[in-house]
Structure formats: C-alpha cells, structure tokens
C-alpha cells in the first residue's frame, strides 16, 4: 500500500509539474506579454521597465527556473492589472465558488445515484426510460441555456427568485440547481450503466439463485461493485469543485473563481489565469489521488494487488 | 457442407431505428442542409440592419412577417443570424472533431507502433489531458494566445484527443500482439500497410462512435466559450455567442436567446441519441 | 542426410515479467540454449506441453522474435533484424500457419483479398493474373475459388485454416512453421487439415516445423521429432523410434499418456507442472522424474547421441552415466 501511495504521489507530482511547464511554455509562446499588456503604442521605456519588473529580460531558462522556484515558494505573481498578488485575488473568491459547488455536489449525488440505481433495477420500465431521457436531456442542455431558462421562468416570469448576484442564500438557489441537474444527469447515466453491467455478472445470478434476498443481492453485491466505476466520475466532480462553475457563475454574475477566470482571460491578466490553472490542476490531482485511495478501499483486488507486489 | 448452412450471415436485416433516433437523424439532416445552404436560404444578410424594426417580436408574439423569428436591438434578423450561427457552429464542431480524431488516432497508433519512450510520452500526455478539465485549459490557452477562428478550432480539436489515442493504441496493440495484424506483418507487410490497410479499418467503427460521442461535447464547449465571449468573435456569430448576446435582452426580447438555445439543445440531443444507438449497434464493448 | 535449410544454435529467449508495480521483474527463460536444424524438404515435429517454449522457438525460427543469445541462419545467412526491409522480403520465403485461423485473418477483407496480399506485398505476378493465382492457391488448399469472395466469419474453422494455408503458400515459401495448426479445430476437421498439410509438404517439397502438444499429430507429419521440456530439447529422433521406444523419462511419460494404447503402463508424473520462472537446478525435469539421482539435481544433461543406437537424448540416466535411483517410484 505504501508503494502504491508513493507511485500515485509521484504521478500526481508529475502532473502538477507538467501543468506548470505547460503554463510557462504557453506564456512564452504567446508573444511578448509586455507588448500585449502595455499595448502596441506604449512608449519603449515603459515597456522596458515592465519587462525588467516581470523578469522578462532574462534568458528563457533563467525565467523557467525562476518561475518554477517562485511557484514552489508560493509566489504566483501579481495581477498584471491591479498589481495585487494573484494568489490572494484567487483565494478570496474560493468561498463563493464552494458555496455553489458543494451544495450542487450534494444535489448531484442525492439525485443522480438513486435515479441511476432505480433505473437499472427497473430496466426498460417506463420510469427507466423517463429517467434516461431526462438524463440525456440534462446532459445535452448546456448549463448556460439551462441557467438562463431557469432565470426566465423563476426570476423574470414568476419573480420568485433573484436572477443574479450574491446577496442572500436565495440568490444561490438557481445556480445550485443549474449546476446540480446537469451533474445528476451524468451521474445517473453512469450509475445505471455500471449497475447494469454488474447485474449481468454471473456472481449476481449465482447469489440470487442461491436464494439470497434480492434486496441483499443489490445492497451487498451489486451496489459495491457498481460503485467502483462510479467513484471515478465522483472524483472528477470533486476535482471540479473549483472549476466546474465557470459558466454558471458567469450566467448568474456570481463572484467566484470561475467568474474571475473569465474576466482575467478577457483582460489577458496572465498571472491570475495561471494561478487559477494551477489551483484547478492541484484540486484535480488531489481528487484523482483520493479516487485511487477510494479504489483501494472499495476494491480489495487492487489493495492486495498493490500489497502483493513485494 | 457449404459455408452458408454452417454460419448464418452476420449481417442482420436492416431495421428502422427507434423513433427518437429517427427524429435525431432528421433533425441533424435539417441542420446539415441549413449549414450547407446557409447563403442561399438566408432571408437577409446576418449583419444587415433594419433600424425601423428593432427588437421586433417573432411571428405569433406580435411580430411582422418580414422577420419570422424577430430581430435584435439593431434590427438584425434573428432567423438570418440563426442560420449563419448554425453554419458556423457546425463547421467548428466538424473541424474540431476531425482534428481531434486525427491527432488522437495518429498519436495512439504511433505509440502502439513505436512503443518504448514514445509510448510513455504519449501516455503521459493522455494522463495529463484527462486529468485537467478541458474548459480551464481552453480558457488558459485563449488568455495566452488571444483569439482567432483557426486557433479556436484547433483548440477545440484537442478536446477528447486522448480518447482516440487510448482506443487506437489499445486496439492496435491487441491486434499487433496476436491476430490479424501480426499475421499480416509476418507476411512481410510494411508498417504503413499494417496500420493503414488493416488496423485502421478494423478500429474505424469504434473511432467513429467516439467521434459521434465527442461531437455534441464540442458543440457544447464551443457554445459555452462563445457564450462567455471568448469564442467566436463579432461580427461572426455562433449559437453560443447568440445566446450570450441575447442574454442582455432576456427580459425584453427573450426570442433572441431562445431560438439558438433551442437549436443547441436539439442538435446535441440528436447527436447523443444517434451516438448511443450507434454504439449499441456497432460496438457493444465501448461504454 | 540433406542440407539444413535453417540452423539455430544456442537459442535463448528470456522475458522479464513484472508481478507488481514496483517489485523486481522476474526473468523467465522461455527457451534455453536450444540447438535446432531443419533439413531441406523435411518436417521437424516439435512436441511439448504448453509453456515449454515451443511457440517461442517457432517465432524465433521465423525471425519474428530476436533471440537474447544464439544465432539463426536461414539458407546460410544470418536472420535479419525484425522489421527491416531485408527481413520483410525474407517473409516471402518463410511463412506461418497459426493456431487460431479466425484471429489470423482480417475480418474486414475477403479471403481472396487476403490470399492475394502476399502477392501484392512481394510484387509477385501482375495485377491481371492475380485472380488466377488466388484461385489456384485456394484450390490447392482445398477451397473452391468462389469461396475467395467470402469473409472469414462466413467460413468454418477448417476452411479458415485452409485459407490461412493458401495465404501462407502464396509467395512460394521454402519454410513453413505450423504453430498448433489443428488444436483450435473440431476433432472431425483435424484429420483433414493434417492430411492437407502432409500432402502439401510432400508435393511442394516444403521444409516444415510442426509445433504441437499432440504426439500423434506430430508423428503423422514429421520426419523427425524433437521433444521439448522447459525451453530445452530433451530428446530427438525419428518419430517411430521416439514413439515406440522413448529414451528420456519425460518422453516416456508423454508417450504413455497417449490414450487408446494397450499394454502400456501409464507413467504419472510427480510434482508440480514446470514453471519457467523457477527453473530447478541441474536437469530441469528432475523434480518430476522417477529416475532422478543426485547428479541430476546438480548437472545439466547435454543433448548428445546415446551410446548404442545414437538416439539424441539429454538425460544422465538414458545416457548410462548413472544408474536409475527409483527413489520416488519405490
């Protein structure tokens, strides 16, 4: 198990390293940030000053090493727009995003998994078809369309809920629902197909043929095995707690990380973009790591496989 | 003993697809026709202004017959803009899907053929792109490189490339270690012949199913980015940018937003339905 | 004695097997210093249980795999590197018949197209006369020319194996390696395919390496038989002699296991089936051998002619170097 963890950590570290390098390369390839930020008609001495202020006048290797070094010491640069530390800018937006994504995750799990299991157990019934149709629809309706439709109905037409902003918990209802429904649809589809796959296995038929009550078969044999593939997708959702709300935050003018990212991209505020990119990669990597751990806990084969490796 | 009596022919009689799939096929055909014929069937130019008919409602909501689906605040015909947007969005999605499939399949086959360090690098890239949400990567690239339509298509093409790479590599290795590919190699065939004439046709159905599954995702990505104002830039228009733009007039003129939204949903829904159906039909091993 | 078409010396092939992510890889020696020669126009039968390295030997003989040690010479020239242009053109002269004919055929192409493929690859004949050549090859392999328009899944197992043979013969090879060509076929078809192979070999004067776990099949086609155990040849000789009077205790056990024999006492092998990852010291067979003595646990026996009749056998006891101990049998 220790080796297993070590291996996963190494891979996680490698991914982060790749993201950092990717960010650096893309940053350098994209042309002269000084010119971009200052504008083509900026006076040359101002551009020069900007360059030396951001270290853009050193060699590429020096820049790269300095860059990696500063990132691992937690210095993520300053916003090229207002000069505040990018990390602080991003950090202060995180609670707002989590205020949307955590309730949305609950909604996804609470709605998606039971719906998927129910649909699988009542395969080809009317309810199964209905669940799947809704799931396909939920999966294919883009979140900005869903969000705007909800606004149109509940804010504009009915006037029950506010259409945007972050003043009270009522403002969070529409964005949370928008986020939750799409994810629940994906999860339902996934859970259903995982369940169906497991239910078709010989050991399930054996268990029910042995006279194990169906309820026990499902809860004791089928569900745990179906959980294995489902964990992957939940891990992905966990990893996108920060990044998953980019579009929805924009629709509802919610001042979270996603909104910050979009504004930063539009303004080409590269330090902030980079910071969000690293933050997202980091959460994703941590989530993948947790998924691997969860696999080890759920699936004894993997656990013993890792231990048996002497 | 003739072969026909021994083995029933594998091709089953062609049956009509289920109604929902049929509907999807019809809708997709309509969209394709609109995209191809856009310059012919458009009632106006998508940039033409009609200042006397600004924010005119669609027919049935009090609008005039001159603008069936109404106009926006500059008096531009929503139908004309919709037609142009469909053309733009479908072109981008097709281009990106094909780019993704090409890149992914090439890298996957390359990894299977070269093995060793090349394979490890491809696998590392696959892991990398599978572990970072694509939207964020795309946003970062757009921030760094700015926007142009070519870059945008190429960027979207990178979406899901790793899926093709995985599939192509896995299937090619399976075919190469035992079975027909090894047999053909053993006949003295060049790697080109083995990969292009034997392996590629054999894995094509799986790749095509993956393409139909990736296509709606790319439409969603494109429209999402365009909605955020980071994709297709004015004066060009796409389904997503129409929605993003119409959002300003959500209360006064919801029709600007509703028709492209409707088209996005129906199109992605259709392709998904067709993709699922194809997957069940062609390749039950793929999930 | 005829000229050898192919001579292999000291062939060794090791695989490293990883058991876990971080454990040290175990080295498995699939083929261990094996000498082998194939005489022009004759068939060598290679017998042994699964995992003894006979298929690996077949692939190395064909040059599909490079031995870790040892050398192979085909028609006097060393085997070129797999995948090189020289190697590819050599394919026209050496071909293979596979165990699983359905797997060896591309299910998206017709039988005719696949039989024509070696002709295309090696530029044999003109485009115009290819259909006639294909028809002739199919007929030769016992298929009807019109079956060339069929797809692999539309044929029966035996017919597919005939198609594989037709394809293998298309480029007019001198050497044919058959790796368990009948074991995936229905018993009722096996005899037909065996007859086809024997007949084709004789008619075309092919040099053949016939790999099988079935001693009777090997006897039917071979001019010479080699028995393999854990990557080594332990006995070699004319088929009738080896079958009627096996010299090596392992060969004796194999022969006694052929069903339907009268007056033969079955020898049951003791111990575990061989594990190439964990080779015993000395004679690899000693843990299961009823005759093994202390020398067998220390010294690897050499394959050499037996005093008396000159049978090639690798066994201290059969060579008369030690007397049988019968310790296990007693």
From TrEMBL, chain A:
GO CC list: plasma membrane
Record bears the keyword Transferase: no
Entry similarity comment: Belongs to the binding-protein-dependent transport system permease family.
Keywords from the named record: Cell membrane, Membrane, Transmembrane, Transmembrane helix, Transport
Domain ABC transmembrane type-1: 94-291
Membrane-topology descriptor: Multi-pass membrane protein
Lineage: Bacteria, Pseudomonadati, Pseudomonadota, Alphaproteobacteria, Acetobacterales
Protein species of origin: Rhodovarius crocodyli
A Pfam family hit: BPD_transp_1_N
Protein name: ABC transporter permease
Presence of the UniProt keyword Transcription regulation in the record: no
UniProtKB/TrEMBL annotation, chain B:
Topology of the protein relative to the lipid bilayer: Multi-pass membrane protein
InterPro entries assigned to the protein according to its UniProt record, in alphabetical order: BP-dependent_transpt_permease (IPR050366), MetI-like (IPR000515), MetI-like_sf (IPR035906), OppC_N (IPR025966)
GO biological process: one example: transmembrane transport
Gene Ontology cellular component annotations, sorted alphabetically: plasma membrane
Gene3D superfamilies: MetI-like
Listed transmembrane segments: 20-46, 90-114, 134-161, 195-215, 255-278
Originating species: Rhodovarius crocodyli
Biological classification of the source: Bacteria, Pseudomonadati, Pseudomonadota, Alphaproteobacteria, Acetobacterales
Source species, domain of life: Bacteria
Similarity annotation: Belongs to the binding-protein-dependent transport system permease family.
Name this polypeptide is given: ABC transporter permease
Keywords: Cell membrane, Membrane, Transmembrane, Transmembrane helix, Transport
Domain ABC transmembrane type-1: 86-275
UniProtKB/TrEMBL annotation, chain C:
Matches recorded under SUPFAM superfamilies: P-loop containing nucleoside triphosphate hydrolases (SSF52540)
PROSITE patterns: ABC_TRANSPORTER_1, ABC_TRANSPORTER_2
Protein keywords: ATP-binding, Nucleotide-binding, Transport
Gene Ontology, cellular component aspect: plasma membrane
Pfam family, any one: ABC_tran
Cell compartment(s), UniProt: Cell inner membrane
GO biological process: peptide transport; transmembrane transport
Residue ranges of every copy of the ABC transporter domain listed in the record: 12-255
Family per similarity comment: Belongs to the ABC transporter superfamily.
Name this polypeptide is given: ATP-binding cassette domain-containing protein
The species this protein was found in: Rhodovarius crocodyli
């Amino acid at each position: 198990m220790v080796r297993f963890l070590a291996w996963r950590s190494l891979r996680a570290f490698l991914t982060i390293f790749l993201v950092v390098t990717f960010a650096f390369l893309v940053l350098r390839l994209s042309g002269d940030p000084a010119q971009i930020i200052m504008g083509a008609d900026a006076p040359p001495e101002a551009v020069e000053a900007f360059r030396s202020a951001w270290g853009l006048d050193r060699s590429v290797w020096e820049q790269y090493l300095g860059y990696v070094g500063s990132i691992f010491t937690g210095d993520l640069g300053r916003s090229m727009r207002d000069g505040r530390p990018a990390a602080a800018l991003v950090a202060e937006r995180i609670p707002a995003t989590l205020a949307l994504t955590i309730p949305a995750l609950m909604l996804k799990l609470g709605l998606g998994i039971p719906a998927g299991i129910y649909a699988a157990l009542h395969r080809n019934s009317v309810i199964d078809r209905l669940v799947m149709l809704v799931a396909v629809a939920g999966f294919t309706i883009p979140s900005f369309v869903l969000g705007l439709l909800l606004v149109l109905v509940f804010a504009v037409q009915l006037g029950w809920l506010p259409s945007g902003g972050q003043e009270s918990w009522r403002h969070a209802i529409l964005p949370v629902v928008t986020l939750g429904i799409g994810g629940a649809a994906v999860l339902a589809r996934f859970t259903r197909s995982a369940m169906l796959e497991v239910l078709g296995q010989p050991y399930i038929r054996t268990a029910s043929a042995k006279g194990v009550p169906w309820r026990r078969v499902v809860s004791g044999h089928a569900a745990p095995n179906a959980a294995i593939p489902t964990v992957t997708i939940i891990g992905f959702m966990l990893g996108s707690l920060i990044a998953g709300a980019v579009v929805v935050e924009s629709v509802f003018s919610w001042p979270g990380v996603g909104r910050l990212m979009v504004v930063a991209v539009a303004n080409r505020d590269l330090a902030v973009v980079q910071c969000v990119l690293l933050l997202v990669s980091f959460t994703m990597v941590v989530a993948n790591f947790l998924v691997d751990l969860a696999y080890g806990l759920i699936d004894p084969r993997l656990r013993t496989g890792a231990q048996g490796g002497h | 003993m003739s072969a026909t009596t021994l083995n029933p022919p594998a091709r089953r009689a062609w049956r009509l697809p289920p109604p929902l799939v049929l509907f999807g096929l019809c809708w997709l055909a309509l969209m394709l026709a609109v995209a191809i014929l856009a310059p012919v069937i458009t009632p106006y130019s998508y940039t033409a202004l009609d200042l006397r008919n600004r924010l005119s409602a669609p027919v049935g909501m009090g609008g005039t017959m001159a603008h069936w689906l109404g106009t926006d605040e500059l008096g531009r015909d929503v139908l004309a803009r919709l037609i142009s947007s469909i053309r733009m969005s479908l072109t981008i999605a097709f281009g990106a899907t094909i780019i993704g499939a090409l890149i992914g399949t090439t890298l996957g086959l390359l990894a299977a053929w070269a093995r060793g360090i090349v394979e490890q690098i491809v696998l590392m890239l696959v892991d990398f792109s599978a572990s970072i949400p694509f939207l964020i990567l795309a946003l970062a690239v757009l921030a760094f490189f700015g926007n142009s339509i070519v870059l945008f298509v190429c960027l979207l093409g990178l979406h899901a490339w790793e899926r093709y790479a995985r599939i192509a590599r896995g299937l090619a290795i399976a075919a190469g270690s035992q079975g027909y590919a090894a047999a053909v190699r053993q006949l003295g065939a060049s790697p080109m012949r083995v990969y292009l004439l034997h392996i590629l046709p054999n894995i094509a159905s799986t790749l095509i199913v993956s393409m139909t599954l990736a296509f709606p995702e790319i439409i969603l990505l494109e429209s999402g980015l365009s909605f955020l104002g980071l994709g297709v830039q004015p004066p060009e228009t796409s389904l997503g940018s129409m929605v993003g733009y119409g959002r300003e007039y959500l209360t006064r003129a919801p029709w600007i937003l509703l028709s492209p939204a409707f088209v996005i949903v129906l199109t992605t829904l259709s392709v998904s339905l067709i993709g699922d159906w194809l997957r069940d039909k062609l390749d039950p091993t793929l999930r | 004695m005829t000229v050898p078409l192919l001579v292999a010396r000291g062939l060794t092939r090791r695989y490293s097997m990883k058991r876990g992510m971080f454990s040290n890889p175990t080295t498995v020696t699939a083929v261990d210093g094996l000498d082998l020669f194939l005489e022009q126009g004759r068939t060598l039968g290679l017998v042994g249980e699964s995992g003894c390295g006979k298929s690996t030997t077949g692939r190395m003989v064909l040059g599909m795999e490079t031995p870790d040690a040892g050398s192979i010479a085909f028609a006097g020239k060393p085997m070129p590197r797999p995948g090189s242009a020289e190697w590819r053109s050599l394919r026209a002269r050496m071909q293979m018949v596979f165990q699983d004919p359905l797997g060896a055929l591309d299910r998206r192409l017709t039988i005719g197209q696949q039989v024509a493929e070696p002709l295309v690859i090696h530029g044999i004949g003109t485009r115009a006369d290819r259909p006639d050549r294909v028809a002739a090859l199919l007929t030769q392999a016992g298929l009807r020319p019109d079956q060339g328009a069929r797809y692999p899944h539309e044929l029966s197992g035996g017919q597919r194996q005939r198609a594989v043979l037709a394809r293998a013969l298309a480029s007019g090879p001198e050497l044919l390696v058959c790796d368990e060509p009948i074991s995936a076929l229905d018993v009722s078809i096996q005899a037909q395919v065996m007859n086809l192979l024997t007949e084709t070999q004789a008619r075309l004067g092919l040099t053949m390496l016939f790999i099988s776990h079935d001693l009777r099949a090997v006897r039917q086609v071979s001019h010479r038989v080699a028995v393999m155990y854990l990557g080594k040849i332990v006995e070699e000789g004319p088929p009738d002699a080896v079958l009627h009077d096996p010299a090596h205790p392992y060969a004796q056990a194999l022969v006694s296991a052929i069903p339907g024999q009268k007056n033969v006492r079955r020898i049951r092998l003791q111990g575990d089936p061989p594990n190439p990852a964990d080779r015993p010291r000395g004679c690899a067979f000693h843990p299961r051998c009823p005759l093994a003595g202390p020398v067998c646990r220390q010294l690897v026996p050499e394959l050499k002619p037996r005093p008396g009749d000159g049978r090639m056998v690798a066994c201290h006891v059969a060579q008369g170097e030690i007397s049988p101990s019968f310790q296990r049998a007693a």
